[in-house]
Specification:
Layout (H helix, E strand, L loop, with lengths): L1 H8 L4 E6 L3 E7 L5 E8 L3 E3 L2 E3 L2 H23 L8 E6 L5 E3 L18 H11 L8 H10 L10 E3 L1 H10 L3 E3 H4 L13 H11 L18 E3 L10 H7 L15 E2 H8 L7 E6 L3 E6 L12 E4 L5 E7 L4 H16 L6 H12 L9 E4 L3 E3 L4 E3 L3 E4 L7 H25 L6 E5 L9 H9 L3 E4 L6 H13 L6 H9 L5 E4 L3 H16 L1 H10 L2
Parallel strand pairs: 1-6, 6-11, 9-10, 12-20, 20-21
Antiparallel strand pairs: 1-2, 2-3, 4-5, 7-8, 12-13, 13-15, 14-15, 16-19, 17-18, 21-22
């Protein structure tokens, strides 16, 4: 206790904050990357004017609530309220569109990664660059605004991501970690925005009518790119007040480069080296696989981004993750309450997930689609969640639960199949996110879906906020360690993982289920047309 108090009071700690799609989390770690305290708050995106968005007011109220809870948690654990940290960093959902004018005012509501209205821009830029530009990337949103003749375009002075925005307000610096930046615009092997593609983009925008033409070259309104470990500014007095209006937290804390949730997920699972992948499951689900060599061709289903150190990564990003499972868990909890049994949310999730283990390996003929939003990988502009079965299907809780879990991994496995056909080798997948808190359920079924061993560590549920804290701690390391070596030698050397090998019966059953799932995608298309 005394040692921990001394460490906290001396600021020999690192803080990570991550703004996820449904929760804002904070994690404070000590010199050995052990967790000393945490905080969290819930938030939710809104579908307003046919746009998925969050208000900037909710950003700051959520961060303040989260930081206050962390400070209270540390005090409850160790009897001391932290007033400073050795370093800190911010992570958030990648991609999207945050555009500011020269007066630092937001020009249009934040357009998140979940929006799928940028197909024309995505297609044109992908052809122009000969490089996949997904619908959710910042440059696709920016160019789509031009194609739609939005009058705010000439006023844009700065484009950034959610993590970049928060970091900017805390430090005054317009910078971004390379992993997050690689989801705004393509980067090259030197961890810089690709100059040839920038020139092509500027060339086509010069042809636009003057009232929607940008006033500056794209490179002048994008953040400065920094790789992991670099100094990225200091918490200002104004920034400290934004984090902690009570005044406990003092300015002067150094910050590491802000990163995207994909990068912190890689760090949190030690998946930053070739032949290692990781899967992050939340509102969306995505896999990241570090590449040994470039892909042979452009795939619209595969993003090419980077690790926080700038190494190339193949990313399979699915817009829809565990939200539909959460909706069913909420319904079952309400049903339990109607019967007079007040079950906790965690109890319902455990019961629902564990039931899946006794289900038929092919889901008993049940199909589930978790599409709340559009899904670019399966070429669907919108989503219509549904459960479908034939009269002869074996409808029971176990098969229902298994079909729901399979649906979370369905689109992901289609993308992973493309990587396998490209010859991308993956020895182990490391998984994290709340879905993996229930032992040996989602982990086992993910192993079947990707036919690869899946490992889950003791920080799986903490995920990105812990990973961001580790990146902050890495920025204090003044040696010449690479990020890969730092994680291997100083962070994960004593940590344990549980590894589940693919079960042949599960693999075979999932394959049969996926064939039906793929054939049934036409039902989704019909539902989108029928249900407006």
């Amino acid at each position: 206790m005394t040692d921990a108090q001394d460490i906290i009071e001396a600021g020999k700690t690192a803080l990570g904050i991550e703004l996820g799609s449904t929760r804002i989390k904070a994690c404070l770690i000590g010199p050995n990357c052990e967790t000393l305290g945490s905080g969290a708050s819930d938030w939710e995106n809104r579908f307003e004017a046919r746009t998925w968005t969050y208000s900037l007011e909710d950003v700051w109220s959520g961060i303040q609530q989260t930081v206050a809870q962390l400070i209270d948690d540390v005090e409850a654990n160790f009897g001391v309220r932290p007033a400073t940290f050795g370093a800190m960093g911010v992570s958030a959902m990648m991609h999207g569109y945050l555009a500011f004018d020269s007066d630092e005012q937001l020009l249009v509501p934040f357009r998140t990664w979940r929006n799928t209205t940028t197909a024309p821009a995505s297609a044109k830029l992908s052809r122009l660059f000969e490089h996949n530009i997904p619908l959710r990337w910042s440059v696709a949103h920016h160019y789509q605004a031009m194609l739609d003749s939005e009058d705010h375009v000439p006023q844009v002075d700065y484009l950034t991501t959610l993590a970049g925005y928060v970091h900017w307000r805390l430090t005054g610096r317009r910078v971004l970690g390379v992993g997050d930046a690689s989801g705004m615009f393509p980067v090259d092997l030197n961890a810089s925005f690709n100059s040839k593609m920038l020139a092509k983009f500027n060339s086509i925008t010069e042809e636009l009518p003057s009232h929607i033409r940008p006033r500056q070259p794209l490179e002048d309104i994008l953040p400065e790119i920094l790789i992991a470990g670099r100094y990225a500014g200091t918490l200002t007095k104004e920034g400290a007040a934004l984090l902690d209006p009570s005044g406990t937290l003092q300015p002067g804390i150094p910050l590491c480069p802000p990163e995207g949730d994909a990068g912190t997920g890689m760090v949190a699972t030690n998946a930053v080296a070739p032949r290692i992948g990781n899967v992050s499951a939340g509102t969306s689900i995505f896999a990241m696989v570090v590449l040994e060599s470039p892909l042979s061709k452009v795939h619209p289903e595969i993003d090419v981004v980077t690790t926080p150190a700038g190494e190339p990564v193949a990313m399979v990003h699915c817009n829809n993750g565990a939200s539909e499972l959460g909706a069913w868990a909420k319904l079952l909890r309400e049903f339990s309450a109607a019967l007079g049994h007040q079950a906790e949310a965690g109890q319902v999730y455990d019961a629902l997930l564990n039931a899946a283990l006794s289900g038929d390996t092919d889901g008993g003929g049940l199909l589930a689609y978790n599409y709340l939003a559009g899904e670019p990988i399966t070429d669907l502009e919108e989503g219509r969640p549904m459960v479908i079965r034939a009269p002869g299907s074996r409808m029971n809780l176990a098969n229902f639960s298994r079909a729901q879990l399979y649906s979370i991994f369905g689109t992901l496995s289609l993308g992973m199949k493309i990587l396998a056909e490209e010859g991308v080798n993956v020895d182990t997948i490391f998984a994290h996110g709340g879905l993996f808190k229930t032992a040996n359920v989602a982990q086992r079924l993910l192993a079947a879906a990707v036919d690869t061993p899946v490992a889950v560590g003791d920080t799986a549920a903490e995920g990105g906020s812990w990973g961001m804290a580790v990146l902050a701690a890495y920025s204090l390391d003044r040696s010449s360690h690479s990020l890969v070596n730092y994680l291997d030698e100083y962070v994960f050397n004593l940590r344990t993982f549980s590894v589940v090998e693919p079960d042949p019966a599960d693999v075979s059953g999932y394959k049969s289920w996926l064939e039906q799932y793929s054939a049934g995608l036409t039902i989704q298309s019909a539902a989108i047309k029928a249900l407006q």
